[in-house]
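User: My advisor, Dr. K., asked me to get a structural model of this assembly before our group meeting. I'm new to this, so sorry if the format is off. These are the inputs:
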Amino acid sequence: MATETAQAGTDVPAPAPEHLTTEDRVGLLRAMLTMRGIEERAMMLYRQGKVPGSFYDGFGQEAVSAGPAWAMHGHDRLCILHRDLAAHLIRGVTPARIFAQYMGREAGITRGRDGNVHFGDRTVGCVGMVSMLPDMMLVATGLAMAFKLRGEQRAALTWFGDGSTSRGDFHEAMNWAGVQRLPVIFVLENNQYAYSTPLDQQFAVDPVERAAAYGFPGVKVDGNDVEAMFEATRQARERAIAGEGPTMIEAVTMRMHGHAAHDDMKYVPREKIEEWRRKDPIDRQVRRLEAAGVDVAALRQEVAAEIERAVEEALATPMPDGNTAADGVFADEPALLEDGTSRWSGFAAGAA
Amino acid sequence: MPTMTYLQAVSAAMREEMRADERVFLMGEDIGVFGGAFKATDGFLDEFGPARVMDTPLAESAIIGCAIGAAAEGLRPVAEMQFADFVSCGFDQLVNVAGKMYYRQGLSVNLTVRLPSGGGFSGGPFHSQNPEAWFMHSPGLKVVAPATPEDAKGLLISAIRDPNPVVYLEHKHLYRRIKGDVPEGRYATPFSARVAREGTDLVVIAHGAMVHTALEATADLDGASIEVLDLRSLVPLDEAAILASVRKCSKVVVVDEANSTCSAGAEVAALIAEKGFEDLDGPVVRVATPDVPIPFSPPLEQAVLPQVDDVREAVRELLEY
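Assistant: The format is fine. Below is the predicted structure of the whole assembly, which you can bring to the meeting.
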């Protein structure tokens, strides 16, 4: 059932996308530019000692989170992985809170309780990841189960990596979602390496081929094409809320930086990096929008200014008080997920 | 007040909460059509339907992981592990995802995981364990272990309503062996200890099935006045009640069916050493299962699990100290 909608990296001439307005397309670019800008700036802060721990980024993978997040309704739910910063931005998390999060400050999403990209803002419908991968596939499946149980037209989406397809939770989630035909979308972020382990040491069969074995479609998409990622997710969501069950989307992309800041990536052939640099997802969307007459230079300036303001804002916030470290282990009252922003113009135009 | 078995009380808690609150639903292996391996959910499928009494695949990580997702959306899942032992397959979701969720991102997880636990009937190494200490050691999880039918119902109702993940240990050896009066209606029992019998010469501290072992062992002990404290809740641990009994009795025997090292009983003993030392008139004595897998054959199993005679002997020795 796996179908190919695009070859990774082929720079197809910009089609006039049926479901995206120019405003949507600019929004997608803006999210990707903001993600890259934040991560580049945060890496500087890391090197300056202002970001403790380690630092993980999604350089070169910005389309994998931006496209799908754009296709999801504000009342849908997302379980977001560590190279998917654009999804947080699209849901409405501000850059200043993200910088504060990286720096372990009280104003960060986890208030310094967890580090780097280990966060999810429950007030915009996001659940933060844990380091055990792909645990969130099951949580997303459970969110979808709640929607089905209550008869709601909503969907859940989660990202997971190629390495995590080797773990049991991948199987348990795929199986359960298939058995119950749940409204869940599994986005496999195939970035060629799990830390240093390449795909051919991770699996004998491409995971997208396995979707059929669980009873639902698997779609392979060019993960560096943000509009293709949007479209695949839009279709998967349509299936989900129509009660047709889950979809797995394999986003073929490349991890352009090391696993984390300390990783020099010497195990990746240089030519491979060069090859993928030419397929950069932001460059591609820039070319499309420039062809459509959008002033991308102005957009870049706007994003850069926003990021600098956010850094200043975050740096001005306090570190958490050590005396509060043992507080908040247990909840006194329920604190549940709330809705985020619906970004795709199709929702305003009446799409469910 | 109706009389019920411990198992009937467990069922009553779920049935009454499900009737009153549509957010409550059940997940587990063989809980629907079959009514559960121990029949705790017998008849539930007919009354509540398959959406709320969900027969799941054989996948403990999925049961707990999906329950976490449903809880984040405002439902109140009650997940059954067919045997407490199998929670090892769902350990990661419970400990890393559920337990740390609220602390990390302020998202509460209103989840109850039922663990049919304990030995005494030749269940062998994989159907007899008492894994409560694994979860006591994991921040963010509450852990309760009722000993009586009344508490089995009230603590399960409290667990279902608690906005946090609660590990609920129901002792299999009590299911049909123990009967008692159970109040009608929906009542929530607090996560605190209970004095099962008042006494002044020595206190036996226990939870779950060992409360009954302690009561039997000390029912008539040469006229000595023996208090029995039923912990009921292990997280939170009722420090005030433990220390009050120590102050009153000055001699303490801690009985625990779990393997001895780092068990709930070990934690109680440590607490008394730290905060009750001045009130003691003898060493804290522990009776627990040695650190071996629970063997299958009856003479072997009885040799490792604390028996009435073991407790009686320990109490007698300490009284003479």
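One thing worth pointing out at the meeting: The longest strand of chain A covers residues 184-190.

User: Perfect, thanks a lot.
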